[in-house]
Amino acid sequence: QESEVDPTVSNLAAADASTIALQNQNFSGQVLQSRHLCHLTALQVLAIESCQLEDVALSVFTGMPISPLLTSLNLRGNRFRTVTPLLQQLPLLLPNLEELNLDENQLTTFALANHSALQSLRLEWNNITTLQLTSLAQLARLYVSRNNISILERNALVDLPSMTDLYIRHNPLSRLEVPPLNRLTMLWATTNQITQISAADLEGLDSLRFLLFYENKISSLELPVLNSLTFLSIEGNLLTQIKPASLAGAPFLDQIYAYDNALNRLSMPPLSLLRLLSVQRNELTTLVPSDLEGLSSLQQLYVFTNRLTHVEMPVLPNLAGLQLHENRITSIQPASLAGLASLQFLGIYNNAITSLALPNLSLLTSLIVH
């Protein structure tokens, strides 16, 4: 059961509850004592958020078992600069802890090892520069966005066999080397300073489905074999080309977002399952059949706001939407679009078209020319 608690540290011992949640109190300079927590044998969730707790408060976690049932510890929004006393004792004192939240503190380093139950670790909005996680058998979700991590090397994440989600957004991260986390399905590394991605950086991510690198400074991209990858987000970078070899290792891609780059050439590998390709706001000047051949499942193609002067499409039997507006196209002839039997929407407004002759597009329901 959950019961209300008088919002002072000294009265924690009076709460016979499975959940204690304190928020927005001023506990600056106070120390959590053993007597405050040691009798809470039914406690499962402990949250002390935005209470100005400082490092000294963590002495309660030194050498004293708390509730064996405690599965969630939330210390978000306090003033912790180091949590070493807590982390060193965590496997012994809180062996069943599944969730640890230290978001919005003042941590600069973080190291944790040998905890068999922890599943979710939140460290966002700190100032962490160094991260070391080792032998966390059940850790599935790691959140380290909004920190000061500039390099993440393979040896920073060791023996994490259950990891499925890694969020490392909004850091000054220039280099990313992900160890072979074979259960990882989501890698969210957006708004960093990464300049290149090589195949070696992502090798061994056999279960990866979602890969997000938007708003970095990537000028070179080459993916390894990623047979589970379906979603790729690389918009807002400095890419000038997409070469067939760059994406050939990901044959099951379903969606690619590569807009807001500097692409001047598009040469796609034969991704037969790709349904959406978004390359608007680049510097493409031509679109010819060889650029898109083999995309037999493509349904939506966004190529607006480029510098296209010439468009000639290959046979794309499933393409339903083609957006070519805001380019420099002067002419469209029947042969240019003849292979688009399923086309329903065609946007060609804000071009320089003086000659327009469409083939027989029996499914076309929307044509926007002005």
Provide a descriptive summary of the structure in words:
By secondary structure, this protein is mostly beta strands. The chain is 7% helix and 23% strand. The protein contains five helices and 29 strands. It has helices at 34-37, 84-93, 244-247, 289-292, 334-337; strands spanning 19-23, 45-49, 72-74, 99-101, 109-113, 120-122, 130-134, 141-143, 151-152, 157-158, 165-167, 175-176, 186-188, 196-197, 210-212, 220-221, 231-233, 241-242, 255-257, 265-266, 276-278, 286-287, 300-302, 310-311, 321-323, 331-332, 345-347, 355-356, 366-368. The protein has a 16-stranded parallel beta sheet with strand order 1-2-3-4-6-8-11-13-15-17-19-21-23-25-27-29, with no helix packed on it. Helix 1 (34-37) links the parallel strand 1 and strand 2. The protein is elongated, with a radius of gyration of 27 Å. The chain starts with 18 loop residues before the first strand and ends with a strand.
